[in-house]
Amino acid sequence: MMRGSGKAAASLPLLLCGCSIQHYQSTFGNAAEEARQFNTLFVIFLIVCAVMYAFVIAFLIGSIVRRRRASEANVFETGRHHATNPAMQTGLMVWGGVIGTGLIALAIASFFADRSMAQAAAHEKLSITVTANQWWWDFQYNSADVSKTLRTSNEIHLPVGVPVRIILHSNDVIHSFWVPSLAGKQDLIPGRENDISITPTKVGLYRGQCAEYCGTQHANMAFVVQVEPYADFIKWWEQGLAPARAPNAVLAKAGYQYVTTRECAMCHAIAGTTASATVGPDLTHFASNRSIAAGTLPMNQANIRRWVDDPQGVKPGTKMPKVPLAPNDLKAVVAYLETLK
Amino acid sequence: MSSRSRTSKAVIAGFALLAVAACHREERHNEPKPFNASIKAGESPPTISPGSARPSPLDPRAADFDNNAPAIAEGQYLYTRMNCVGCHAHGGGGMGPALMDDKWRYGGRIDQIAATIAEGRPNGMPAWRGKLTEDQIWKLAAYVRTLSGQPSKDAVSSRADAMSASEPQTLSKREPVKNADTAGR
Questions:
Q1: Does the beta carbon of A322 lie under 8 angstroms from any beta carbon of chain B?
Q2: Is residue A311 part of a domain?
Q3: Which of A295, B166, B179, B185 has a Cα at 20 to 30 A from B106?
């Protein structure tokens, strides 16, 4: 038992190191202006509070020692020794001064952090509407030109250095939008609109996660954020606007037939086909996502088959039903979904 | 301590234990049971029949869905997402018949409602077989029965998913089921 806990304690710093090196999902990622602000604030709070804490503990130890000496010397404590002891008087005044200065420092620091974040919000160049659902993320890239509006699910791309306004909605219960490496949490509340600004500063791949318990599959409600140079981002957006290509292979054609006419089309949309429902994730570029079912499985052929065959076995409670597919239909549907790049 | 107070304490403890045992609720079936999922179109069991023929016995699947809180909640989710609201509103009806009253043209039993959803009915009700799974159809049927207050009040939702002008389902009145095939008798 002792050895086990010792090992765990020894591996804890390693784990923390792992967080700071990877930055894939880390509050110390500092990959956006907002995260950097938060971390600066965190360091200031930590230092001020650590000094305060040290003072309190020092006074506590001092008073214990004093009391013990007094009882040994049989001195009666009046409780007014600060008035007679100049060192104590100075100490208390310094402490009061430090508390005042510390609180003012914290207030000023948080005021400036807040202010700079609000200023970033005024210069946004891109807006994304996020709609949270049990248990997946629906993203819509807004554009003044409606034909350029792009809908994706469970994966977003952001241009580096561009302030982005993220508008938050929910379709069912309260969720929370959280990409630890980029910014703090913000709730998505049904029936009202929230927002958060992010200005990514480092190119990379980051993981977002629902941060408000929202039901049985809360843990499997993740998404991927890819921060990339502006030119790459525009290219990705253009590609995203392209409708799904009609399949050529015989098997994929059979899958196309099934997906667009049967159960799948009741919930999913695929641009360029008759499937246009908005209940479930948009599947137009399904196979170019990095994961299946909001971060539940990595994207590959075997996992697409696993997911389509038995969603309730992979992600129990998910709104996607287990469709009793004949083996041939399953093969065809998987073959078609693979073409949705 | 007198023996009487000891006895009464034991009795209270006994009742408390019994009360805990009464907390059993229905089970949530994430994985649909492999019931006749392969019924072909038009082969739903004939739950309604014209004339004096006796109604068929209740489908055994009813036990898994009727009065089952998770099934009813899932049904409520599907009811709006599959746009039942478009014709039936939230039970009050519109282009389609009301679902909160006591009249059931094609039967008010859960298996009869499931058959109606699966096969469709004349004058506008589309067939959902092949569009929804059997499991989803039965969940929808379980929810439709709550609109007229059929299931027990501990199984229904006290809060509607959609904005609603009517009282919560836990307070709604239970309408007696008048089937078209029994109304004439």
A1: yes
A2: yes
A3: B166
Q: What share of chain A is helix, strand, coil (3-state, %, to 5)?
A: 50, 20, 35
For residue A263, the chain B residues in CB contact (below 8 A) are 130-133
The answer on A283 and A190 residing in a single domain is no
Say yes or no: A126 contacts chain B, CB-CB below 8 A: no
Spatial neighbors of A100 by CB under 8 A, at least 6 apart, are none
The answer as to whether A273 is a domain residue is yes
CA-to-CA separations, B46 to A198, B109, B148, in angstroms, rounded:
59, 12, 23
- The C-alpha atoms of residue A28 and residue A50 are separated, in whole angstroms, by 19
Place of tokens 């995260």: A35
Q: What percent of chain B has pLDDT over 70?
A: 77
Average pLDDT over residues B70-79: 92
Query: Is B82's Cβ below 8 Å from some Cβ in A?
Result: yes
Kindly tell me the burial class for residue A231, based on how many C-beta atoms sit within 10 Å of its own C-beta (0-12, 13-18, 19 or more). exposed
- Please identify, among A92, A121, A150, the residue that sits at the C-terminal boundary of a domain: A121
- pLDDT of A220 reads 94
Q: Which two tokens stand for residue A118?
A: 């609000």
Residue A274 has pLDDT above 90, yes or no: yes
- Where in the sequence is the domain holding A145, given as residue range(s)? 124-241
- For residues A128 and A222, state if they share a domain: yes
Q: Which residues in chain B are contacts of A322 at CB distance < 8 A?
A: 31-32, 133, 135
- Indicate whether A130 and A237 sit together in one domain: yes
pLDDT band at residue B34 using 50, 70 and 90 as cut-offs: low
Inside any domain, residue A19: no
Give chain A's domain count.
Answer: 3
Q: Looking at residues B5-13, what average pLDDT do you find? A: 87
Q: Above 80 in pLDDT, residue A120?
A: no
Is residue A24 in a domain?
Answer: no
Residues of A in contact with B39 (CB under 8 A): none
A16 pLDDT above the threshold of 60: no
Last residue of a domain, one of A241, A275, A310: A241
Tell me, yes or no, if A321 comes closer than 8 A to chain B by beta carbon. yes
Q: Whole-number mean pLDDT of chain B? A: 81
The partner residues of A269 in beta bridges, in order of sequence, read: A276, A282
CB contact under 8 Å between A323 and B130, yes or no, is no
Beta strands in chain A (DSSP E): 126-133, 136-141, 150-153, 155-159, 164-170, 175-177, 186-188, 194-198, 204-209, 222-228, 291-292, 297-298
Looking up residue A321, the CATH number of its domain turns out to be 2.60.40.420
Alpha-carbon distance B175 to nearest alpha carbon in chain A (angstroms) = 29
